[in-house]
Amino acid sequence: LLFSTMKIGYYDNYPLTYDENGKPMGLFIDVLRKAGVLGSYSVEFIFGEFADLMQQLNKGYIDMVVCVAHTPEREKLYSFNAEPVIMNWGVLVSFKTLEDIREIDGKNVAVNRGDIYYQKFLEIAQSFDIKPNYVGYDTYENVIRAVNNGEAIAGVVSRLAYLVNSTKYPKVRATSFIFSPVQLKFAIRKGSEIANKDILEKIDKTVAFMKASGELDKIFNSYFGISRRA
Q: How far is CA 135 from CA 96, 143, 150, 163, in A?
């Protein structure tokens, strides 16, 4: 081993990545385990807020972050594996039926700080010349909860976060405003020690195999059969 410990960042985005009693869990962790990464290397997991983890990755404090949307901007800073683990997209949720996106002008809209869909939604709102009052939260669930409690007229979340939380927060509904489909992958800092390793290649082979065999879908669907312990 040329490097002592690989530090991997993960955050709360059930069922893709989440923490359960201090243990990393979720689909992306399942892929790492299956790829042999957890057995072949000394790994330290670091749990945090997504925006903070990406800053730590930039500064070289950690080596990898799981479940990162692959964008052209991020490609300049990070190396991604090639095979997306899953596709996701942004959706505007609300406690009322929004017929027109202009209804959110000047109103509170809950967003997840540092989130790709928040960034994209900012651009969309600007193109419509709409100026909501953005209120930042640290997880998608907190965004959905804020909408459910009436603290915001709408919220910007991922489709999966909405799926996972829809029964828990029954007042919140997905609107017809969906945007920015993205591929979710593993990101490592360009030039980091592990960038030269075959880790991303190992991950790609594993993801491709898990997709072809139907195992990835099976594991993903199994998370929706579990009632999450809050």
A: 18, 9, 13, 22
